[in-house]
Specification:
Length: 69
């Protein structure tokens, strides 16, 4: 299992094991949330925007075809 990416109050690297679904341990999972919000200025990254646009386009296309018939 990977080591936690969190930092202790002393500023040292946390020596606990990270959780399976996260680079942080249970104690430092709040640092993960902070790292994500600081890491990107935009709440949407490009990948999510493209996926949302494709999804919306598909739904709109299905609606258009159904109403025309
Ligand atoms: Zn930790």
């Amino acid at each position: 299992m990977a080591q936690c990416d969190g930092k202790t109050k002393k500023g040292d690297r946390c020596k606990r094991d990270a959780r399976a679904e996260s680079p942080f341990c249970a104690i430092h999972q709040d640092q993960e949330i902070r790292a994500r919000s600081v890491g990107s200025d935009q709440p949407w990254d490009n990948d999510s925007l493209v996926k949302a646009a494709i999804g919306f386009g598909l739904v709109a296309a299905i609606f258009l075809f159904r109403f025309r018939r």
